[in-house]
Write a structure and sequence with these properties.
Length: 168
């Protein structure tokens, strides 16, 4: 596995997993949030993101890309050896979002764009809460990918066991 896409709801641990796998495989990690935002949370838009992502996918032999941004799915899915879907329950990712908001409040997370300090944002929390409705589209897109390319984890414990098996 040298070209890995990680998707899942906000707060599911995509960035943390990407870093762990990047360290393990010694490959570059690309955090889509860091590409999508300019300072002060200014969005660059989907087309500009796709224009940034495409050369990265084609220029690096090995990579791990985490983040959703479905505009990038076709190019990412087609070029990935493995797609990891963190399909965790709402209680897991909402709790993690709240924890992250508290721990990093006012600071820029390592996986975020410069000039975008963590903040509590009710609109973002509502967006995350409503992930189950967007999950249907995710499952629809993943159904078109060969099953052997997809790893789905439904609980953090499953992911923990998978990582332990890799590291041994």
């Amino acid at each position: 596995m040298t070209k890995i896409t990680i998707i899942g709801p906000s707060g599911s641990g995509k960035s943390t997993l990407a870093k762990q796998l990047g360290d393990f495989y010694e490959v570059p990690v690309i955090h889509l949030d860091s590409l999508y935002f300019n300072p002060n949370w200014q969005e660059i838009g989907n087309r500009a993101l796709l224009e940034k992502v495409a050369p990265l996918i084609h220029s690096n032999q090995h990579w791990i890309i985490e983040g959703n941004y479905s505009i990038t799915w076709p190019i990412r899915f087609n070029n990935s050896d493995t797609i990891i879907f963190l399909d965790f329950s709402r209680s897991v990712y909402i709790r993690r979002i709240l924890k992250r908001s508290f721990i990093y409040h006012g600071k820029v997370r390592p996986d975020m764009a410069d000039g975008c300090p963590e903040r509590f944002n009710l609109d973002f929390l509502k967006f995350a809460w409503n992930y189950p409705t967007r999950r249907k589209e995710t499952l629809k897109q993943l159904a078109m990918i060969p099953k052997e390319k997809i790893l789905t984890f439904h609980h953090p414990t499953e992911l923990k066991h998978y990582l332990a098996s890799l590291m041994n």
